[in-house]
DNA sequence: GTCTATAGGTAGATAGAC
DNA sequence: GTCTATCTACCTATAGAC
């Protein structure tokens, strides 16, 4: 019984995942995304990570720092991919397609990190240690804006929408894609093919209007 | 001092809003949407509604019931509008445009109700009293699916996306539109014109692909 | 670096005066 | 129908043994 209690929620057998900090981050991200940062307790996070709550404080100084660490991990995965995609050759609409592809890939690969960042990170924006998160967020937005502006300049993207508006629409669609609770309900089959088609709708909607 | 404390956060002077239950619902929706259902406390909700926490229990039996009441108010505003829009004459894509228009109007008119429903209502799905919420949600989804299927049948909507996928994409875009925290950051100017253009992107993306 | 025990604070909800 | 006072439970975080 003690054996079963001490290492609960085992990760898939083939994956040892011996790093405690990473285990804690995984558990925290899922808990934050599912129950909100206030609904997630250090006890349940620790439980999912296979330890007791006080042990978390050997790796992270506070709950807020845990929240910030999840955000940092997310941007560490996203920013380099976005930068690379924005530098690929092709027309504006093609580069935007690359951006959507990599952003969707990163966010569906780490859905809980994405949702934690979107829904819970506003609360710790002004906390010490969160400055880099704000900077990374602005860096990402700047990349999207630049690519869209260039697409509008070369005529491959419609000009009646602001880069900010289009960025927001794409970002919010990706956020919906990562929502594990609603995915199954509404999407039914979360197959990659379906996701690609949804991205195609966004891209086709972003092209210049016919005859215009 | 007691005078200032007892009736805090006054609504606009011209609006008496004497109904306590409605005041509580307004305060609860904003608090739920902003801080999450766990981050929102009965004390702060009561404070925003101009009363003390125990007084809320004269109108709602528990915090969960308050959450459910917000969801009910949202669907009471949305469902009739969706039904009316789905019955308007025209092609499938035109009816879908009507749906998007009324759904956007309702959700931006009651953004906190919408966000509360989206983010926090999953937790009380199986609570007694929440059955009608689940039913209303399924009713809305059915309307969207029907309109989209008809549009695909009459050739005014692309056929390579499932009704569920398109519904989800639109719904998630509307959710993003209601987010008061991010609206200003990303959209910049929350003017109606901008919102209409974003809806146009969705509609244009949903039309049959060119040459196909 | 993990644990048990616990401090200190705040949450939801109730009792009962008015 | 609103209030003050309060109960009980849970939360974050710390202390200190091992």
Explain this structure.
The structure is a homodimer of 212-residue chains. Chain A is mainly alpha-helical and 212 residues long. Chain A has a domain of 137 residues: Orthogonal Bundle (Tetracycline Repressor, domain 2). The N terminus of chain A is likely disordered. Chains A and B meet through helix 2, helix 9, helix 10 and helix 11 of A and helix 2, helix 9, helix 10 and helix 11 of B. Chain A binds a DNA duplex (18 and 18 nucleotides) through helix 4.
Keywords for this structure?
11 helices; mainly alpha; 0% strand; disordered N terminus; Tetracycline Repressor, domain 2; homodimer; 212 residues; 71% helix; DNA-binding
Helix segment tally of chain A: 11
- As a percent range, the share of helical residues of chain A equals over 70%
User: Low-confidence parts of chain A lasting 5 or more residues at pLDDT below 50?
Assistant: 1-14
CATH superfamily of one domain in chain A: Tetracycline Repressor, domain 2
Mean pLDDT rating of chain A: 89
The computed structural class of chain A is: mainly alpha
CATH fold-level label of one domain in chain A:
Tetracycline Repressor, domain 2
Biggest interface, which chains? A-B, 46 and 46 residues
Query: What is the CATH top level name of one domain in chain A?
Result: Mainly Alpha
**What's the quaternary structure here?**
homodimer
- The total strand number of chain A stands at 0
The percentage of residues in β strands of chain A lies in under 5%
Sheet with the most strands, sense and barrel status of chain A: none
Q: How would the global form of chain A be characterised?
A: elongated
């Amino acid at each position: 019984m003690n054996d079963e209690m001490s290492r609960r929620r085992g990760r898939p057998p083939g994956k040892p995942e011996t790093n405690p900090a990473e285990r804690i981050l995984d558990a925290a991200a899922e808990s934050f995304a599912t129950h909100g940062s206030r609904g997630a307790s250090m006890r349940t996070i620790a439980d999912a990570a296979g330890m007791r709550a006080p042990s978390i404080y050997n790796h992270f100084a506070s709950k807020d720092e845990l929240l910030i660490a999840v955000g940092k991990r997310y941007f560490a995965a996203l920013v380099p991919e976005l930068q690379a995609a924005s530098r690929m050759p092709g027309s504006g609409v093609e580069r935007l397609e690359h951006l959507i592809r990599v952003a969707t890939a990163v966010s569906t690969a780490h859905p809980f990190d994405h949702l934690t960042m979107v829904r819970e990170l506003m609360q710790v924006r002004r906390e010490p240690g969160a400055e880099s998160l704000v900077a990374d967020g602005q860096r990402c937005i700047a990349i999207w804006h630049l690519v869209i502006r260039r697409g509008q300049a070369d005529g491959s993207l419609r000009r009646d929408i602001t880069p900010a508006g289009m960025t927001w629409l794409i970002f919010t669609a990706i956020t919906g894609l990562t929502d594990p609770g609603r995915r199954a309900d509404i999407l039914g089959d979360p197959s990659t093919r379906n996701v690609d088609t949804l991205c195609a709708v966004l891209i086709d909607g972003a092209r210049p209007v016919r005859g215009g």
